[in-house]
User: Fold Arginine deiminase from Amycolatopsis marina.
Amino acid sequence: MLSTDTTPRGLVSSPAPGLPTHYAGAVTSKTSYSSQEPNPRVDTEVGPLRTVLLHRPGNELKRLTPRNNDQLLFDSIPWVDRAQEEHDAFAEVLGSRGVEVLLLSDVLRGALDDPRAHAAGVHAAVDSKRLGTDLADSLRSHLSGVDSTTLAEVLMSGATFEELPAAETPSLVRKMHHPHDFAVAPLPNLLFTRDSSVWIGDRVAISSLAMPARERETALLDLIYAYHPRFQGSGRAYGAHSAPIEGGDVLLLAPGVLAVGVGERTSAAGAESLARSVFADDIAHTVLVVPIAQSRATMHLDTVCTMVDKDAVVMYPLARESLVAYTLRPDEHIGKESVRVDGPAPFLTAAAEAMGIDRLRVIDTGLDPVTAEREQWDDGNNTLALAPGVVVGYERNVETNARLIDAGIEVLPIAGSELGSGRGGPRCMSCPVSRDSMAGLS
Ligand SMILES: NC(=O)NCCC[C@H](N)C(=O)O
Assistant:
């Protein structure tokens, strides 16, 4: 039976629950910002992290069932309360190291306070191909009248047909759908803020996400960066509706030097077009395009390799010898719009050359193949650097973490038994917005 409720069930129509007090100090939910805050700018993977965008998992995770988890890109059904506790602890570690944590739900609500963003949000929520004209019109008109908090919740958690406002004459589409089908699809992968946008220098690239379950994230990030006061005036790199690129495939190896993985998510066309964009904007001079296996275990470059120091990476042992890179640079003779392609060459050699260093150190995890495969799957190579030589990693990757520590890297361990069910680690769950330059750091 169809619900007669006008407020979608399970959706928040009053202010969102308060932040847990134990890390509220580290997390901002402000709507106005002062000039004290660092300007958005990220030139490297390991420069001291000042500001990061995270998403505290919310009601969207409660939409996952054994029938839809594969399609929604989760490997199992997370225990949501525990996932939130684990995420709070992650945010707390960052806060304890002086990192300002912005929460995606806060900045989304803040952006939606602007009427233009609100209209864009309604547009992003309503898919008339899915709903048909009548239902799409009535949902659009309903959402146009809700406050920013309710609209943000619908955008993140979606809505089932039974949660839609009652209609005088139910449409065919509504009659023919099961009440629990999604009228607005939920976005459980918002958790992985790394993938949906990436700062390159002082510009932000909004990703064009490859998997249908994540496509709508683009629209949310687009309106956050366009309308939230914190980001007013920020320049854009790349185009949100171009060929697929995802932030998990983009590593800022050194100022002006990017590595871009091409595999399950980022296409060769996406990498080429990102390169053109960053060359034209003068925010990079070299892009290394790195083919990676098209499989779930290696869905992004950052599942096999992340930087842990200014000249060091942690890398899945099997990738060490096999990764290669095509080197893209602007063609000086023809102009910045043209791209010269060299290679392929071994990735580590091409990277060191582009970075202007003798060699890119690989922290030798020295693992046996079975442990290496297990810990790669559990995001052992997916660390988030807070500064050169200081990283956050999942505690469960005992062997990888031990090797990092032996190599002089400080590892801040976090629990991830539930967070990991979406197949992403600390780097995947974080989008750095501001990092200090490494000039002057020894
Ligand atoms: N950079 C990353 O590797 N992100 C992890 C994304 C996991 C998410 N469930 C996905 O399949 O897109």
